[in-house]
Structure formats: C-alpha cells, structure tokens
Amino acid sequence: MASRYDFRSDTVTAPDAGMRAAMAEAPVGDDVYGEDPSVAALEARVADLTGKELGLFIPSGTQSNLVALMTHCARGDEFIAGQEAHSYKYEAGGAAVLGSIQPQPIENAPDGSLPLDKIAAAIKLDDMHFARTRLLALENTIGGRVLPQAYVDEAVALARANGLATHLDGARIFNAAVASNRAAHELTAPFDTVSVCLSKGLGAPVGSVLVGSEAFIARARRLRKMVGGGMRQAGILAAAGLYALEHNVARLAEDHGRARQLAEGLARHAALKVEMPQTNIVFLRADPAIAEGFAAHVKAAGILVSGRYGQQRWVTHKDLSDAAVDAALAAAEDFFARA
Ligand SMILES: *Cc1c(COP(=O)(O)O)cnc(C)c1O
C-alpha cells in the first residue's frame, strides 16, 4: 500500500496552496547583492521574533549551524555540545572537517541538558596542551524535550563567566515556545546566536535563519558565501518562511496534542515503553524483534515511522490529522491483538 501517514519526521510536509501562492507572488532580487526584499523581510522577522539584531537566511539548518560554529570558532578552537546534539552527531562532522573546530561532546542528562559540572570540567585552561574552548552550543527542543529555562540561564551564565560565547540550535524553538507558553525571544534571550529551522514543523520547503549581533552576522555572511550558501532570487523561498511564521506557529499546539494522544494510545500496549512527549516527537523502545514486527505491520497499513535497534521515533506535523493518529492506534491494536 502507498503510505498515507508519514510519521518519520516533521520535515516531510509539503507546501500548501497558501504557501505556494505566497512564493509565486514574492518580490525578489539578487540576494548576494543584498537586493532581495523578501529575504530581507524574513531575516528581519526572525531577528525580531528572537530578539536579535540581524538575521541571515541559510539553505539548511546544518549549514546554519556550521556557519555559526565557524563564525564563533577559529581553526584549533573547540565547542562544547551534547553527545545527542545535532551540531555534533548529525552534521557529518562538518565543524571538524570544514572548520577545523574540535567538538567537545558531553553526555546529555535525561532532560536533554548538559550538567553544569560537566560543562565546567570540560572548559580547558589557557595552556598550550589544549584546544581553546570558545563556545557552548545548546539545543532546544532537543529530542523533542524543552530545556528548562532556569537551566538555560545558569548554563549561559557559566559559559559567560568563562569567556565562552553561546549558540542555540533552535531548529524547533517555536515548538519549545508553544509548549512552554512563552515567546520565542524569552527562550533565546540568553544566547549570542540562534539558528531557527523553517522546514521542520513550520512547514516551509527550505531554509533556516541564523540570528545574532550586527557584527556577528556580517562575519557569518562571508562564511555563508564561502560554504556555498549565497543564493540569488531566494525570495521565493523566504516567502514560504514568512508565510510559515505567520500561519504555522500557533498550530504547533495541535501537533503536540496529537503526539500526546498517540503516546497515550501506544502506551496501552505493555510491550512498548513509550516516553510521554513534551512537544511533537514520541520515542518508544521495545524488544528489537517486536519493534521490527510492529514497524513492518504499520508500514503495511500505510504508516511510516523511523528508528532501529528497538527504538522508534514518531513525529507529528501539520500534514498529519487526527485520522493519522487514529490509523496508527488502530494498527497498533491490530498488531498486539495478534501477537
Ligand atoms: C533538522 C535539524 C537541524 C538541521 O536542519 P537541516 O535543514 O535538516 O540541515 C539542525 N538542528 C536540529 C536540532 C534539527 O532537528
């Protein structure tokens, strides 16, 4: 059966008619010359929403994090990040390969945070044996979890006290904001720089925006060009981002509600160890053979999920309705009734 419901990621959404119309009508210019009004509007909008001076439109979140790391850190510097951080684990080692920047990963605590004592212990002394520790990079949400804001304040204060800059991978910062009933700028205020994804739950086809101070973004602009991220009439893409920010932020609450319904329904099956979600991502564990059988069973029912080795990830997004959750739970009932 062709798949009807795709829970693998919130990146699988397709632009809807309203978004496509906005893209088609977008005023454009050559953005490498700084002449695309739609890109400028998007950059200003994200800077405003996150409380920073300037924004920079970048093709992907991976490139946005890379540009941020390369702007903060020089060759031979290091950044502290979580073992689970996207910027450490899921970006093909780009900081090391392209930036000659050494990652210093730290085990994430169960809530996604990096324990303060471990951060403190990882910050190197000024000594010729060591790389220069320059940056603390956090992520919010991380694995669908919202970082406690009191923790964020403490971690950033610790970084500052040690002369480190701070970057937030806020790919899903609007999920964190909606889930915690706070404005995005409250969550991003402590950080020097933030990267925001438009192509996750917000539903745009392409793009991230890196925000920071005027001086930082001027340097980041050069590095974006260096890594091939300078785009020309990118306003058609920026228009999708602007549309997403206008129409698709508040509705993230629906995704969170569906994730919770899904988790509660799946948790009725004792073989599935389901983590209750804070936002739009449900993780579960099961005996690997059961997980594999279950994934195959739901796939036959037209439902796609991601995961391996007894782990599964179910992600809700704007192209999944209540019917998708109902279908998933019905497939689970069916599978475990037979098992
Ligand atoms: C998806 C994601 C990125 C990277 O975004 P791409 O556009 O896929 O390169 C970065 N950080 C986090 C936390 C993400 O989830």
Automatic annotation (TrEMBL):
GO cellular component, one term: cytosol
A biological process from GO: L-threonine catabolic process
Enzymatic class: lyase
EC code(s) of this entry: 4.1.2.48
Cited Gene3D superfamilies: Aspartate Aminotransferase, domain 1 (3.90.1150.10), Type I PLP-dependent aspartate aminotransferase-like (Major domain) (3.40.640.10)
Keywords, ordered alphabetically: Lyase, Pyridoxal phosphate
Organism domain of life: Bacteria
Requisite cofactors: pyridoxal 5'-phosphate
Keyword Lyase in record: yes
Domain Aromatic amino acid beta-eliminating lyase/threonine aldolase stretches: 6-286
Signal peptide: none
GO molecular function per UniProt: L-allo-threonine aldolase activity
Keyword NAD among record annotations: no
Matches recorded under InterPro entries: ArAA_b-elim_lyase/Thr_aldolase (IPR001597), Low_specificity_L-TA-like (IPR023603), PyrdxlP-dep_Trfase (IPR015424), PyrdxlP-dep_Trfase_major (IPR015421), PyrdxlP-dep_Trfase_small (IPR015422)
Entry-annotated residues carrying N6-(pyridoxal phosphate)lysine: K200
Oligomer status and interactors: Homotetramer.
Entry similarity comment: Belongs to the threonine aldolase family.
UniProt protein name: Low-specificity L-threonine aldolase
Taxonomic source organism: Pelagibacterium lacus
